[in-house]
Amino acid sequence: MIVTQVLRAAGRRTPLIQFLGKRSIPESIDHTPRLHPQDPHGSLPKSFAEYRAKAQQHGPLTGYRSASSGGKPSIQPKEGEHFDRNELPRRFWRLAVSKAEMEAIETGAAYI
Prior knowledge:
Blueprint: H1 3-10, H2 48-54, H3 99-107
């Protein structure tokens, strides 16, 4: 006999999933800032500006300017570095794609 027909013949089927019921939103939620229990500082910052002054994300967020230059950091490439492929020797340039090659790429070479 087919298993489905056997289960239907038994008459009672209890689903394996248990539903929690209707959810309720709490009437009052406390949004006051609190320290994390493992906070090493022991106090909240007085303002966002104070927090930003000490915050780090992959390095300090402030003080980006180089101390030696006194202004903006240099954006010129160092010796042996290049910003564009066309500054490299010709053998490293991108190869030119002909119109026939581009058509083959775009059509998936369906006509070849």
